[in-house]
Design brief:
The complex is a heterodimer of chains A (about 425) and B (about 200). Chain A has about 425 residues and is an alpha/beta fold. In chain A, about 25% of the residues lie in helices and about 25% in strands. Chain A starts with a helix and ends with a helix. Classes of the chains: A alpha/beta (about 425), B mainly beta (about 200).
Chain lengths: ~425, ~200
């Protein structure tokens, strides 16, 4: 009997469930007013004038006392779609909305999310004519403290939003140090963060600016037929791809095979590096790409694509900086064997001396080494920049922005960096 | 981490269980049965019971979750009731086809278990089994070239079998088994007929 109980115990233990967390993204399309055919897109002047740091009054117990409001865009065919994001200081919360004007009012409709939990819901804002819409819709708005009041409601999940949230304009967004890079890990965040799109996908690249990113880090591997693709792990696994029957190292398969049989965890195809860079250059306003080389081998193809898309961006009048990441000795040595390595933009995660040796544009230590202000000063004196990775704890992000002198921070929570950078005074 | 915890817990339980069993067995209470090694081998059909959503890739209607399945198991029957053994076999978890602009293709996911198995007779002729170990998974892909790619994942199985003795050393068993490659969330239910042979007996 005792043995029987033991077997039962083992069996129940083995087959017991593991809780799987899910975020059901709310559908905010039920707001009839926002769908009114007379509602029009906001123009550039209005969008730009709206950006700023806002005081949160109603709703501050849920989201914190401040919000950094910023617009982003993606290009879809001949259309450009704009989103306004609000980054909060509590629980890595943010909202992402579309904006329209209707009858002299500004309407914002979208969703909010907390990255520390699965909490999400619909959020809607109205800027009435007397609360700043008239000013924002004018030809040359001069926005001052208190001149814009965004009155809104938010709810949980798919429920109709009823909880009050009010944002009042306080000041302009901080932009010091200028050119500071808010970098999104794996193109926007990990799959474990339960985002609506998969890590290292074109769809995530198109979405990442909504999270506040100005640049991305993406992971590069090669297929069996030598095509550079975006993929983080060594093998095909359920963390990254939907169940498809393919197992083992990703390098065992050609790109055509992966394209036909494999879908990323949210249904997207594994992108080639070329497709990813094409999306960055032609469809986003991102300005920085960190190619994290996850394989050991020649970097020539990666270098070719780096040059091709840097030039393509330049032809379009855009500055997109694409750097080859050197995370270890193997990649470092491969990089040294490139013909023009000294003039090839790179990011070195090794020592300052190594960064100097390959003439890396950027030195990128891990965050566990601290703010390293003396080393960062040395790097700056050499005409290089310093980025730090991968900072996810809000307190550390706040500390590194307050006390450190880094030129960029890599995080799975770019919205948290965006909040701490933009609200800084 | 989750898998490691399971392995550790199972190992501790086994050690505890075997130690306890050995300690408490009194010679005069031992059943008359003699220790032996028993070989079981057989086959049947398996049905893949894991969730698999291939709508975005597979040709509609091409997913086949049925497959032949086989098992080979060698058990040590000691004097006490909990028996220990090793088990292997084969099955195809599932197969499907792809038909797109670039051509046709098919994929078979094959699984070969390698398990440590515990077994106990709970009623005359009725045995239950619980196994823990690995599945050697291999993808057999034929789409613009052939690829066989392999992986080893953790898994377990549980089974119940009814044995019909034919002679003193030989029997036939009907067995239902649930195989669970929990690391890849693959699972299958099998129904098999086994040939049971007491290959060696002593004492």
């Amino acid at each position: 009997m005792k043995n029987f109980i033991t077997i039962l115990f083992i069996s129940s233990f083995l087959f017991s469930c593991k809780k799987e967390y899910k975020v059901e993204m709310p559908d905010p399309s039920s707001w009839a007013l926002f769908k009114n055919p007379a509602a029009q897109q906001l123009n550039f002047i209005t969008r730009q004038a709206m950006e700023g740091v806002y005081d949160v009054s109603d709703g501050s117990d849920v989201f914190g006392g401040l919000s950094a409001v910023k617009w982003s865009y993606i290009i879809t065919g001949s259309d450009t779609v704009f989103h306004v994001s609000g980054f909060f200081g509590q629980d890595i919360a943010y909202f992402i909305c579309e904006g329209k004007q209707l009858n002299g009012e500004i309407l914002l409709n979208g969703y909010w999310r907390k990255m520390v939990s699965t909490e999400t819901g619909i959020v809607r804002f109205t800027i009435s004519t007397t609360n700043g819409a008239a000013l924002l819709l004018s030809s040359s708005p001069v926005v001052t403290t208190g001149s814009i009041v965004m009155e809104g409601v938010f709810g949980n999940g798919q429920e109709e939003p009823q909880n009050s949230i009010v944002l009042t304009y306080n000041r302009r967004l901080n932009n010091s140090p200028a050119g500071f890079n808010i970098l999104a890990h794996r193109s926007g965040g990990r799959n474990s963060d339960l985002l609506p799109v998969s890590e290292n996908s074109v769809e995530m690249i198109l979405k990442t600016a909504e999270f506040g990113s100005t640049g991305i880090e993406i992971d590069v591997r090669f297929t069996k037929d030598g095509i550079p693709i975006l993929y983080h792990d060594n093998d095909l696994n359920l963390r990254l791809v939907q169940k498809c029957g393919l197992v083992g190292p990703i390098e065992n398969y050609t790109y055509a095979q992966l394209n036909a049989f494999v879908r990323l965890i949210n249904g997207e195809r594994i992108p080639t590096l070329s497709q990813a860079l094409n999306a960055v250059v032609n469809r986003t306003g991102l300005t920085f790409v960190w190619l994290d080389t996850k394989y050991i081998g020649s970097l020539e193809k990666v270098q070719e694509l780096q040059q091709e898309f840097t030039q393509l961006a330049a032809q379009q009048g855009r500055h997109v900086e694409i750097v080859i990441g050197l995370p270890g000795e193997d990649q470092f040595n491969s990089f040294l064997s490139l013909p023009d390595y000294a003039t090839t933009p790179s990011l070195c995660e090794l020592s300052i001396a190594d960064a100097e040796r390959v003439n890396a544009k950027i030195w990128a230590p891990r965050f566990t080494e601290g703010t390293q202000n003396e080393n960062v000063a040395t790097i700056h004196a050499q005409g290089r920049r310093a980025f730090v990775w991968t900072l996810d704890v809000p307190e550390f992000i706040e500390q590194f922005i307050r006390e450190g002198n880094f030129d960029g921070i890599l995080s799975n929570f770019p919205s948290c960096i965006a909040y701490n950078y933009y609200v800084r005074q | 981490m989750y898998a490691s915890k399971i392995i550790l817990s199972v190992m501790l339980l086994c050690v505890f269980n075997i130690t306890e069993a050995q300690r408490k067995v009194k010679k005069d209470r031992l059943p008359r049965r003699k220790p032996s090694f028993v070989l079981q081998a057989g086959g049947g059909m398996s049905y893949y019971t894991g969730d698999v959503n291939l709508r975005s890739v597979a040709t509609p209607g091409s997913l086949n979750k049925f497959s032949p399945a086989g098992t080979v198991r060698l058990m040590w029957y000691p004097r006490y009731r909990l028996r220990l053994g090793i088990e292997s076999g084969f099955t195809n978890f599932y197969r499907y086809k792809v038909n797109d602009a670039d051509g046709e293709g098919k994929l078979v996911l094959q699984a070969i278990p390698a398990m440590i198995v515990w077994n106990m007779q709970i009623l005359p002729r009725l045995n239950i089994y619980a196994g823990f170990g690995s599945f050697f998974l291999s993808s057999h892909l034929n789409y613009r070239g052939k690829v066989v790619s392999k992986d080893v994942v953790l898994g377990s199985n549980i089974a119940i079998s009814y044995t019909l003795p034919i002679s003193k050393r030989v029997g036939i068993a009907a067995e239902g088994k649930f195989m669970n490659a929990f690391e890849t969330k693959d699972a299958a239910l099998t129904l098999q007929l086994h040939f049971v042979w007491k290959v060696f007996q002593w004492d």
